[in-house]
Automatic annotation (TrEMBL):
UniProt keywords, alphabetically: Carbohydrate metabolism, Glucose metabolism, NADP, Oxidoreductase
SUPFAM superfamilies the record matches: Glyceraldehyde-3-phosphate dehydrogenase-like, C-terminal domain, NAD(P)-binding Rossmann-fold domains
Name under which the protein is recorded: Glucose-6-phosphate 1-dehydrogenase
UniProt GO MF annotations: glucose-6-phosphate dehydrogenase activity; NADP binding
Residue ranges, annotated region (Disordered): 69-99
PROSITE patterns: G6P_DEHYDROGENASE
Domain Glucose-6-phosphate dehydrogenase NAD-binding: 111-289
Pfam families per record: G6PD_C, G6PD_N
E.C. number(s) listed in UniProt: 1.1.1.49
Family note: Belongs to the glucose-6-phosphate dehydrogenase family.
Organism in which the protein naturally occurs: Populus alba x Populus x berolinensis
NCBIfam families on file: zwf
Pathway involvement of the protein, from the record: Carbohydrate degradation; pentose phosphate pathway; D-ribulose 5-phosphate from D-glucose 6-phosphate (oxidative stage): step 1/3
Length: 594
């Protein structure tokens, strides 16, 4: 069953009126850059990153300053943007910020779909965490918007139970919560009602109190109403004197056609620079560290190719089923829900060439090159499964089709394994194996890099016939218990010559006792700063869907029945045959990783 997106309006209205762009190049940048009084902690943190004596640039999660144009949403075709492009390669002067401009900006964050689980469990807690760590500007407000009738106080009561302070809290947690909740307000309305969004606009203006308004909309809603919300907000609730940005949650369609249609509809009201397609896995600490590990450590970069790497495995598993999300999940399945976005994004980051810089466009350009170098998935390189009911230790575990929101004859896969290949000089012939599933024996997300066997290994006889035990393996555990470890061969102390496989282990909780921020915190902060490096560009999305759409259509047209596997098991047997086809053994199935 396909998801039907709202029909596109014939209007070509942009989220930010073109009249607002006149002579605003430096003003918009300045108005975002300083939105707080001089003495606030937020300004102190920004000043600690000073580039020049009297001027500074904002830095985002890539550690590099944003230029004025990148914060100037929708200006790609403007004369100012072209002039800046011509000056590329020359040192750009920092933009001075006046005291008056420091106090005349405000940030308004509207969470659309505020009564939903994602908003309650992730978005509001992430915003509070940013506030607690003094990452939000002084002048900010948070609005919840949904169809549910709530008062401001009821919204505050609803989200207060999900807010937590850092383990290393420096201030009274209750006081900080109270301060944050006083900034939270609610407006009930229909998602396709321009009148309701006009009322929201009035409330936003009341809180903004005449200051320059920068507005961020977070669409925590089903994709079939994205366009309705964007159209209503663009016409009635966009900023007239600052920037307006929209964060869009996955899924971005369910195939190439629906994804392209969604993009086309959104771009009737938004420019590409205003659309922030979020994939929260790109905000996870270990995924962020992937490029650091590779590009800043000489020991790894020379090994990062077909010459030394035998295969790469991207593994995602959950130890629970759909648990109430069956209705949503049955329309997408594990391939669309996990593999086409989370795992493919990690693959692109892993395999990309060295970008020119850490600028968002340079990084995303390299990711797109990887995706375009890959051949579309073939059905013979894919295994699908679905979990069935199972009893263990006197406890019964339900089957996928036992979920009351799932059709009894559903063929939607809850497990999938696939082999992908990149047709370029660096990775030719190296299998990239993906595996994702629900109701498996453990919860984990990791990248495993298995290196080639040592040629002419002197100690071959010590390993017998199991040469895989002699293979070095680099593992990046994304969750849980974030870690990076390298499996090496080592002599066991003693008089004999007995070899053992040992780990050189960087366990984050031991090395870095400070609590790791949630991925949504990093991504929200980047969206506020206008940093797009961790968000998905439209051509990147097109290339990703081009890899999976033909296979998905064939899977559905041929009505392939998924292989059943017991709830709580290691998944269907077919996944092992797929790996063996390419002379690979799944790394997460070894005795020391179970």
């Amino acid at each position: 069953m396909a998801t039907h997106f709202s029909p596109c309006s014939s209007s070509s209205t942009n989220f930010l009126p073109s009249s607002c762009f006149k002579n605003e190049t430096t003003v918009l940048f300045s108005r975002f850059a300083v939105t707080v009084p001089r003495k606030s902690t937020w300004v102190t943190q920004i000043h600690s990153r000073i580039q020049g004596r009297n001027h500074f640039h904002i830095k985002s999660s890539n550690g590099h300053p944003l230029n004025a144009v990148s914060l100037h949403d929708g200006l790609d075709g403007s004369p100012t943007a072209k002039e800046n492009d011509k000056s590329e390669g020359k040192e750009k002067s920092a933009i001075p910020i006046s005291e008056a401009e420091k106090e005349e900006s405000t940030l308004s964050i509207t969470v659309v779909g505020a009564s939903g689980d994602l908003a309650k469990k992730k978005i509001f807690p992430a915003l509070f965490a940013l506030f607690y760590e003094d990452w939000l500007p002084e002048n900010f407000t948070v609005f919840g918007y949904a169809r549910t009738k709530l008062t401001d106080e009821e919204l505050r009561n609803m989200i207060s139970g999900t807010l937590t302070c850092r383990i290393d809290q420096r201030e009274n947690c209750e006081d900080k919560m109270d301060q944050f909740l006083k900034r939270c307000f609610y407006h009930a309305g229909q998602y396709d009602s321009e009148g309701d969004f006009s009322e929201l606009d009035s409330k936003l203006k009341e809180k903004e109190a005449g200051k320059v308004s920068n507005r961020l909309f977070y669409l925590s809603i089903p994709p079939n109403i994205f366009v309705d919300v964007v159209r209503s907000a663009s016409l009635r609730a966009s900023s007239l004197n600052g920037w307006t940005r929209v964060i869009v949650e996955k899924p971005f369609g369910r195939d190439s056609e629906s994804s392209g249609e969604l993009t086309r509809c959104l771009k009737q009201y938004l420019t590409e620079d205003q659309i922030f397609r979020i994939d929260h896995y790109l905000g996870k600490e270990l995924v962020e560290n992937l490029s650091v590990l590779r590009f800043s450590n000489l020991v790894f970069e020379p090994l990062w190719s077909r010459d030394y790497i035998r295969n790469v495995q991207l593994i995602f598993s959950e130890d629970f089923g759909t648990e109430g999300r069956g209705g949503y999940f049955d329309n997408y399945g594990i391939i669309r829900d996990i593999m086409q976005n989370h795992l493919l994004q990690i693959l692109a980051l892993f395999a990309m060439e060295t970008p020119v810089s850490l600028d968002a466009e340079d990084v995303r350009n390299e990711k797109v090159k990887v995706l375009r170098s890959m051949k579309p998935l073939q059905l013979e390189d894919v295994i699908v499964g679905q979990y069935k009911g199972h009893s263990k230790s006197g406890r019964s575990y339900p089957a996928y089709t036992d979920d009351p929101t799932v059709p009894k004859d559903s063929r939607t896969p809850t497990f999938a394994a696939a082999a992908l290949f990149i047709n370029n000089a660096r990775w030719d012939g190296v299998p990239f194996l993906m595996k994702a599933g629900k109701a498996l024996h453990t919860r984990r997300a990791e990248v495993r890099v298995q290196f080639r066997h040592v040629p002419g290994n002197l100690y071959k006889r010590n390993f017998g016939t199991d040469l895989d035990k002699a293979t070095n393996e680099l593992v990046l555990r994304v969750q849980p218990d974030e870690a990076i470890y390298l499996k090496i061969n080592n002599k066991v102390p003693g008089l004999g010559m007995r070899l053992d496989r040992s780990d050189l282990n960087l366990l984050y909780s031991a090395r870095y006792p400070r609590e790791i921020p949630d991925a949504y915190e990093r991504l929200l902060l980047d969206a506020i700063a206008g940093e797009r490096r961790l968000f998905i560009r439209s051509d990147e999305l097109d290339a990703a869907w081009a890899l999976f759409t033909p296979m998905l259509k064939e899977l559905e047209q041929k009505k392939i029945v998924p292989e059943l596997y017991p709830h709580g098991s290691r998944g269907p047997v077919g996944a092992h045959y797929l790996a063996a086809k390419y002379n690979v053994r799944w790394g997460d199935l070894s005795s020391d990783d179970s």
